[in-house]
């Protein structure tokens, strides 16, 4: 699961910075997904250690009588632009000072290599599978790591246009295992009606609004 909306009035690319919590809308998103999962056979809930992920996981765990575990492997991707305003369509690509960090979109040169994200996210998935073997687990993470591990499992290239990620706020990307092998991947958006239109998967950018900041 991707976490819900974050309180971020200044539009900072917050990345792994502490102190960024869910907004009121984000808490409603988390509650909506908890209700959606109420009838599922969930025996393990784990989240990135960042506040927004832990807060998103909390209502799901509470509904199933569980504690929220933390797994650092589910954390947001590292990014050189963390702490700055750097969003799709905000002119950041035209700033000469940013160019050295944008030289290689295939790795990428501005942050944690895609393949490193695959390794840690696959390990986190496997650990959650083992913790809930025979049942279901919920892992709360962040948009880029979720999209990268899904792309790997579905055998797509890892470099991509960020505007084409199918990973809306509070969405569920489901990996189904048979034994130790992933046999299918699913995607749902239980809180879609709560997500602002310009932040939905596949939405076109609205003037003056970015699609998000390292969420």
UniProtKB/TrEMBL annotation:
It comes from the Bacteria. This is Histidine phosphatase family protein. PANTHER family: BROAD-SPECIFICITY PHOSPHATASE YOR283W-RELATED, PHOSPHOGLYCERATE MUTASE. Pfam families: His_Phos_1. The lineage of its organism: Bacteria, Bacillati, Actinomycetota, Actinomycetes, Kitasatosporales.
